[in-house]
Amino acid sequence: xxxxxxxxxxxxxxxxxxxxxxxxxxxxxxxxxxxxxxxxxxxxxxxxxxxxxxxxxxxxxxxxxxxxxxxxxxxxxxxxxxxxxxxxxxxxxxxxxxxxxxxxxxxxxxxxxxxxxxxxxxxxxxxxxxxxxxxxxxxxxxxxxxxxxxxxxxxxxxxxxxxxxxxxxxxxxxxxxxxxxxxxxxxxxxxxxxxxxxxxxxxxxxxxxxxxxxxxxxxxxxxxxxxxxxxxxxxxxxxxxxxxxxxxxxxxxxxxxxxxxxxxxxxxxxxxxxxxxxxxxxxx
Length: 284
Hints:
Keywords: DNA-binding, Transcription, Transcription regulation. Residues 5-81 form the HTH rpiR-type domain. This protein is α/β, with parallel strands linked by helices. The protein folds into 2 domains: 1-83, Winged helix-like DNA-binding domain superfamily/Winged helix DNA-binding domain (Arc Repressor Mutant, subunit A); 122-228 and 249-283, Rossmann fold (3-Layer(aba) Sandwich), CATH 3.40.50. Helices cover 58% and strands 9% of the residues. The protein is built from 14 helices and 5 strands. The relative contact order is 0.11.
């Protein structure tokens, strides 16, 4: 893990990868960060009804060199630690507390997004978009907001974009633009049936499929020619305000867009200036 991640969030999200005894140890890390830094592995083993060797195995599974390394990481984190930031929103919670939780999660999400971005994948996708005359983009639910953001960004630099919630229309667009288009499918789960159906249509007409999802090990990941993976690690924790994946998706699209922009920066900036002038003229 990187130094700027919230360590308690990180440990909490790793719980499912641990054994029963290791989960007990990791939960103690989360619940008692102040106490951890004064304990030995043997003492922690006794407190959690496990053993010193279990403590060491647990820290290794959490990607630390050892228990001492984990304690140092927690001690660095304690000055800004608020025990509530990784918990759920509660009844009648204060604005200040909600703010801290959401900002902490957003910071964590952006750090995790940076870790997940593959420069190799982004460069390949940029190359495919440059070759394409038309981009067809689809997302449903919150992912439709990301699709709209992508559409607005690339339209401003003169790229032809087709975005619609009408999947029948998009299927016909794929067939009629098959000589020079790419399909970008956006799905947090990577299991959206409509996106998968569009991907199959694209494959029939030899149209490249670019997927944006939380994992390559999804149905969309298996159908796509290229994948962008975003962070969704905090999504389940704040069920009432699940914005983490949306933030990560939007940031991933920004990285893709600005990587594309940088390939011919002066030309694209000139086009963006023209589109801005057109809007200002419209508003006069």
